[in-house]
């Protein structure tokens, strides 16, 4: 059985840089998912984020979730549910403009801590894009620039809790999908598992590890790398015991960024048969909204069918 890749980021600045870069390359090409340890975000900050997220769920979200379960009759389902996820969630936007002030019932400490955490995650995402540029043989800063658009990248965090589920065989915590965006940084519960990814036709667990950050590749990086790195189907299996916390932060292109394969990664001869389309990120997101839980390939085909777009 293959083991899920865990990468010690501190080794990038030492003698083990080369093998660590190779591990990252292998994880990007063959898994689309990997776990980072020693990533530079303080454990104390992560512990505070976890404590406040769990407190906020208990205080503000748990009762609402129970009411949703009751109103949909989910406790007593007899057949598989395909149009609903067993999750309680809200979304914080950090860039280009924060929405944190508008989210009701976030107390001041939580707001402040999440702002601090977002700054650290943004730094880690940008550091990682540089590592990917180096591994791909792209010029320094290429990926950050590709994501930039006119107002910089979009960046936000989906805060989710997956409460205990009486029928995990019939209701998914989160149905299988690939992520639409760029690079995803996940801070997940280190006690309650549930996240799985699909590799070579098999579902693999993404192991819960204290203070780790899980990274996965989104659809936009697949396009920019012309398929060298691929976004991967993943899902959350609901558990009968324990509430699983998940903070997934999406470092995505700006809404008006034009996404297309990096010319350096497209063979000159194959220019005409370029596998991936060229499109505006916002157009892709509009399409994705309705097709999230379906295969990604038809989405790419649909973007191709929209015809060429003009770029300044």
Automatic annotation (TrEMBL):
Alphabetized Pfam families for the sequence: 2OG-FeII_Oxy, DIOX_N
Organism listed in the record: Manihot esculenta
Domain Fe2OG dioxygenase: 153-253
Signal peptide annotation: none
Record keywords: Ethylene biosynthesis, Fruit ripening, Iron, Metal-binding, Oxidoreductase, Vitamin C
Gene3D superfamilies in UniProt: B-lactam Antibiotic, Isopenicillin N Synthase, Chain
Family affiliation: Belongs to the iron/ascorbate-dependent oxidoreductase family.
Enzyme Commission number: 1.14.17.4
The protein's name in its UniProt record: aminocyclopropanecarboxylate oxidase
Known pathway: Alkene biosynthesis; ethylene biosynthesis via S-adenosyl-L-methionine; ethylene from S-adenosyl-L-methionine: step 2/2
Keyword Metal-binding in annotation: yes
InterPro entries (UniProt xref): DIOX_N, IPNS-like_FE2OG_OXY, IPNS-like_sf, Oxoglu/Fe-dep_dioxygenase_dom, Plant_2OG-oxidoreductases
GO molecular function: 1-aminocyclopropane-1-carboxylate oxidase activity; L-ascorbic acid binding; metal ion binding
GO biological process, alphabetically ordered: cellular response to fatty acid; ethylene biosynthetic process; fruit ripening
Keyword Metal-binding assigned: yes
